[in-house]
Inverse folding.
């Protein structure tokens, strides 16, 4: 079965360009602002939307995403509300793929079976769960695939050729290449090395490869788009959002616009690279 | 790797690192190859006689093992019941049981050619032990410690610095042990090439819960021999405090298959279980996934981790080692709790009756000894793991009792 993710990457391949994948934390800094931003993303140029499920202990995330999780939780965001957010969004957009990203515990507590039913019904297309490596596939990955959701795996610089097949085995939708060893939003990757890594992964899979961690502006997005099928931007968007907040961390009139503008600029960078469909 | 056998409680974990449904390897992909490397290196080391020889030699000459099994005569008389023995882990070099595990991990890190050591610490005892062995072997050491703990455990912060370690206060979240562990994991995921993460308790992703337990099991193995020597038989009950649970697991594990022996773990009940301000993850939590393993955790209905509360920084953690979670479910070990106030009372009683100032952590276990021992016959042999000494706690105890150090 194909998902919106499969269809979107197939379409972009025909167009001959990479996808802009945007990450924001659901409910940051509050539900209404988050929904307003979400609704603007497709028109601004986001091809795939990643939505973070806030968690108290985001062990793989840097200060920007840690703080955004805290703001969202303080604003009363829960996994249930995150699904509501998507349901609202789907009323006006039935094409843009949505990937939920986060940590396992909130899903585990929600109940895996119930979560998969509710996620599918609200219009979620894929899941990225940072702390579920292939060794734990029976927890969520296999049930998710069975439920018709994509399970998108992270590959990292420490995932060598020996390990890649295990990482790719139950991966679907796309592969998310984490371009640095480290937490989100800190170091900037070297584009040439990233392209080599993407090529290495592509020798093992026909899935699209999106690259994330350390992409902050249109120029960097363009450089990554040369070799990858998708460019993921997260911390930079969250920084742009944070800069518009008032001293109590509340949204202001500038919040939605700041994020939308940065997405538009990143989209321009990604779309400026035309590629011949590789195969 | 051993396969889970029937009729034994000591065969876990299985090959994938599970104790029943608990444990596992819930880590980011970046760390997965490192954890697999560690598992392999540890499996080789534990079979290597030269590794065991090094362990034994440093245990004896550097840590000062074996630690005595001491008959607490005055406390026994006072409580008028069971015959109480203290396993004197507070007499180890650095003042707690933590050093047993750190020695093992640092020797392993050296075998693996790692050049930099990181650790998390709560009360600072694991941090001090890690800083100590890093000094001994000339390895750079970074210790992550919650900013709240840095404040309430100043003597240990100074000790770590004196030993040449860098102490990084963690300002995120609740600024205690769980946040220190998050930050250590973030460091590890960033510095994968040269860094060894020395986890201080029987928690985290496989193989840590098993490996730390193995290194701490020296406590129980010695206790078996020493009790045989002292009384000609095994003890009737064991009791130890539990944060992550490494001192308890070290004492319990060699006795798990002696099913006639009662085993008690004591969690920190903080202000009281009903107040919600406590660190008793078995009494007040439920199974979830954090820091690489599935275990009992304090959390809300959305799966968000709750802050733990305890007067003892070493117990101030919203989880517990996965093997304890399993031992609770199968009812091999009984998990009790003690409040801040009960621990403070036991702290004073032990100091005044035995001339031993215990750490606040084992004072929680002593608090339960105070009501378990009187109910037992006089020939009942009860062993409490006196896992650390109380010097580090004098300032905070003085403040709780009013007046401060004068």
């Amino acid at each position: 079965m194909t998902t919106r993710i499969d269809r979107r990457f197939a379409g972009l391949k025909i167009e001959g360009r990479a996808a802009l994948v945007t990450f924001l934390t659901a409910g940051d800094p509050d539900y209404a602002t988050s929904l307003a931003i979400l609704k603007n993303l497709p028109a601004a140029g986001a091809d795939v939307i990643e939505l973070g499920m806030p968690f108290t202990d985001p062990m793989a995330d840097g200060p920007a995403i840690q703080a955004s999780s805290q703001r969202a939780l303080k604003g009363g965001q829960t996994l249930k509300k995150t699904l509501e957010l998507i349901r609202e969004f789907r009323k006006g957009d039935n094409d843009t793929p949505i990937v939920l990203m986060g940590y396992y515990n909130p899903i585990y507590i929600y109940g895996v079976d119930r979560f998969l039913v509710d996620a599918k019904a609200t219009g979620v297309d894929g899941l990225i769960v940072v702390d579920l490596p292939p060794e734990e596939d029976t927890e969520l990955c296999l049930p998710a695939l069975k439920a018709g959701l994509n399970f998108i795996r992270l590959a990292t610089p420490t995932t060598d050729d020996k390990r890649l097949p295990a990482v790719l085995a139950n991966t679907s939708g796309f592969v998310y290449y984490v371009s640095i060893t480290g937490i989100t939003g800190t170091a900037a990757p070297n584009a040439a090395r990233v392209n080599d890594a993407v090529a290495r992964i592509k020798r093992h899979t026909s899935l699209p490869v999106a690259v994330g961690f350390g992409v902050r502006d249109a120029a960097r997005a363009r450089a990554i788009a040369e070799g990858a099928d998708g460019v993921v931007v997260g911390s930079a968007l969250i920084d742009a959002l944070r800069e518009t907040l008032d001293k109590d961390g509340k949204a202001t009139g500038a919040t939605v616009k700041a994020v939308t503008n940065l997405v538009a600029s990143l989209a321009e960078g990604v779309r400026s690279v035309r590629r011949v469909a590789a195969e | 790797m051993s396969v889970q056998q029937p009729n034994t409680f000591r065969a876990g974990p299985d090959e994938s690192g599970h104790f029943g449904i608990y444990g596992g390897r819930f880590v980011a992909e970046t760390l997965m190859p490192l954890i697999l490397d560690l598992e392999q290196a540890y499996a080789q080391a534990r079979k290597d006689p030269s590794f065991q020889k090094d362990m034994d030699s440093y245990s004896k000459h550097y840590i000062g093992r074996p630690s005595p099994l001491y008959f607490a005569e005055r406390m026994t008389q006072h409580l008028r019941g069971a015959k109480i023995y203290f396993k004197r882990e507070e007499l180890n070099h650095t003042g707690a049981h933590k050093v047993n595990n750190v020695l093992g991990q640092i020797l392993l890190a050296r075998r693996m050619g790692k050049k930099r050591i990181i650790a998390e610490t709560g009360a600072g005892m694991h941090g001090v032990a890690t800083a100590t062995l890093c000094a001994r072997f000339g390895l750079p050491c970074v210790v992550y410690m919650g900013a709240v703990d840095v404040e309430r455990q100043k003597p240990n912060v100074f000790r770590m610095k004196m030993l040449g370690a860098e102490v990084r206060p963690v300002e995120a979240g609740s600024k205690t042990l769980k946040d220190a562990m998050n930050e250590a994991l973030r460091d590890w995921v960033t510095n994968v090439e040269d860094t060894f993460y020395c986890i201080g308790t029987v928690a985290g992703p496989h193989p840590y819960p098993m490996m730390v337990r193995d290194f701490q099991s020296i406590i129980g193995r010695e206790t078996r021999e020493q009790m045989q020597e002292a009384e000609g038989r095994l003890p009737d009950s064991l009791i130890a405090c539990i944060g992550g649970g490494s001192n308890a697991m070290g004492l319990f594990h060699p006795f798990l298959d002696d099913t006639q022996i009662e085993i008690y773990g004591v969690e920190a009940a903080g202000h009281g279980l009903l107040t919600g301000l406590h660190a008793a993850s078995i009494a007040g939590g439920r199974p979830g996934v954090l820091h690489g393993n599935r275990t009992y955790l304090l959390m809300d209905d959305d799966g968000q981790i709750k802050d733990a509360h305890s007067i003892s920084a070493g117990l101030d953690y919203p989880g517990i080692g996965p093997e304890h979670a399993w031992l609770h479910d199968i009812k091999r070990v009984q998990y009790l709790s003690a409040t801040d106030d009960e621990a403070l009372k036991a702290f004073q009683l032990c100091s005044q009756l035995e001339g031993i100032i215990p750490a606040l952590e084992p004072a929680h276990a002593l608090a339960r000894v105070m009501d378990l021992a009187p109910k037992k016959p006089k020939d009942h042999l009860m062993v409490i793991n006196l896992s650390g000494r109380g010097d580090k706690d004098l300032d905070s105890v003085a403040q709780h009792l009013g007046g401060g150090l004068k």
Observations:
- The radius of gyration of chain B is 19 Å.
- Chain B touches chain A at residues 16, 24-34, 172-173, 178-179, 182, 185-186, 189-193, 288-292, 297, 299, 301-305 (CB under 8 Å).
- Chain B has a mean pLDDT of 95.
